[in-house]
Amino acid sequence: MLKKELRVILVSLIVSFVLTVAKFSAYFMTHSVAILSDALESIINVVAGGFACYSIYLASKPKDANHPYGHGKVEFFSIGFEGAMIFIAGILILVKAAQYFLYPRDLHQIENGLWIVGVTTIANLFLGLYLVRSGKQLPSITITGNGQHIMTDVYSSTGLIIALSVIHFTGWNWLDPAVSVLMGGLILTKGYQLMRRSISGLMDETDMKIVDKIIVILSSHRRHNWIDIHNMRVQQYGNNYHIDCHVTLPYYLELTAAHDEMKYIEKLVNSEFKGSEVEFFIHMDPCIPSCCHYCLKEECAVRSHDFIGEIAWTRDNVLPNRKHG
Prior knowledge:
Blueprint lengths: L1 H29 L2 H27 L14 H29 L7 H28 L3 H30 L4 H28 L5 H13 L7 E10 L2 E10 L5 H18 L5 E9 L28 H4 L7
Parallel strand pairs: 2-3
Antiparallel strand pairs: 1-2
């Protein structure tokens, strides 16, 4: 898995470096600030690719005494670093565009610049799709984030091609810094989104999509001994997850039987999370008389209340630290 992730990110690094050189050559040829904006963003692709290589290597290291949950959190640093670099590039692009508004420059060889930008955009499109698909298959938030950044580069480059075409046929050179401003705004937005994703991961913000997925898995394989599940907390460490929860079981179950139920839950969820490891810390709660009205266990010699109806598991009753009902 590690070799495949490193191979994917190395492909991104090499291609991004070649495309950056091509874009800067187009800038020196045309003196277009919009092309310069595109080239500056490509530098970020190269820098982020290098940092991603290290973060993928570090995230693959096994757990140790100092890092009992592994090293996966470094991937959130990686996308945060990339987001910060993108944000800085966006600011530089806006500053450069303002300078060109105040001190306009003549553009040269627009047609040649168009061809270079067009070829690099097509190459970036294939690279971005490759990274996003690989990031989902592995899975890797670093590679996925890198792919999403490349796709943003594709969208901005497409707008750049349209603007340069208009400039070429109309001579409206003022469009050059105007388009650069739009690209700078788009880049700032993408940088903010990546930094927001990084902060949420480092702060252990709950990913409700993962919570919903776990609830669906457990609900569809629900056993009668699982009276309810509550106080669920999900933490992500790179590609892996750590889950705390309480499971209410019949109070008279022997320890071995209760342990078997817990191991089954862990095995069940792991079988549905392809490419990821899910570690469970499960606290076993004994049932109390108030559980009887929603307990599905039909043959129970100690039932003290009639069964009224099953309570569906949702975020509202799985996340809080209290038994259902």
